[in-house]
Specification:
Elements lengths: L8 H16 L3 H9 L1 E3 L2 E3 L6 E3 L1 E2 L9 E2 L2 E4 L13 H8 L6 E4 L1 H16 L1
Antiparallel strand pairs: 1-2, 2-3, 4-5, 6-7
Length: 123
Amino acid sequence: MRNNGRWTEARFKSFIISALRGAHGKWGVKHDAKKTAWVERGKYQCANCNKIGPATLPPLEGRTRKRNNAAVDHIDPVVNPEVGFVDWNTYISRMFLEASGYQVLCYKCHAEKTAVERKRRKK
């Protein structure tokens, strides 16, 4: 138990991962990687399908927020699907990379890649 007995280990892990993701959003190298995919104002090239598309897409039906169409993606997943979570040092070193470890993917390619990684993780 963590947090004076209020949290299980799973809740603690979830809290730490959430905090690390927040910090990763401010990771300058991630933004540098996105700049390399920039083609012109508001347009990026997908590293997978090579299509040039807008930075954002219209909201899904029933929603109000635009969708990001230029996702900065870890080339290798932060959590290796074959091995799973190893330890915090491994997790952090795989999350905070140099620019060569990132790619920019369009919404469709990023969704497909994420689905494949999640499916591999569940085996």
